């Protein structure tokens, strides 16, 4: 990593990112957000300037970005950044649904850039479960369920500046996209993608179009 910029600082995890960046001594060159005051505040904490989005895209000395914007902006940010050859971390969920996520995936793969999104719950316990599933310790697994939850909504986390995360027009699938999707990531890592599971256990019941 030569240099990194923040693209959007709207996500609820932004304060954690800023703290980790400072703790690890990562040099952030610039910050963009459609809310310029918000970008300036993040830049002041990191010791850099708020700039225009085009300046980040066109900066040849900048090779990496961290995208913490509202989900509704992901595609319009990811596409030009991928085409500009920027490696990127994009907060989850990547997109609203299959169509926009697939378009972004195609752009990222065509650009050949490094990419990661915010799944961090493949911890030691889940890794051990994965090892046992793969080794056949459980026998043939025919049913699996996970539960990912916390009390953020009841605690009022989304009543202030993070309220957009409860707005379907800006956040898409809301709590499932931001929290429940961790469970989906775990399930697909443990059992394989939908195509593999279908090949092993046969087609679905027809209740879930597209997943047969």
What's this entry about, in short?
This protein is α/β, with parallel strands linked by helices and 212 residues long. The chain is built from 9 helices and 6 strands.
Describe the 3D structure:
- There is one protein chain.
- The protein is an alpha/beta fold.
- The chain contains 9 helices and 6 strands.
- The protein has helices at about 15-25, 35-45, 55-60, 75-85, 100-110, 125-135, 170, 175-190, 195-200; strands spanning about 5-10, 30, 50, 65-70, 85-90, 115.
- It has a 6-stranded parallel sheet with strand order 3-2-1-4-5-6, with helices on both faces.
- Strand 2, helix 2 and strand 3 (about 50) form a beta-alpha-beta unit.
- Helix 4 (about 75-85) runs parallel beside helix 5 and helix 6 crosses helix 8 (about 175-190).
- The longest helix is centred in the last third of the chain and has 18 residues, at about 175-190.
- The radius of gyration is 19 Å and the shape is globular.
- About 25% of the residues are buried.
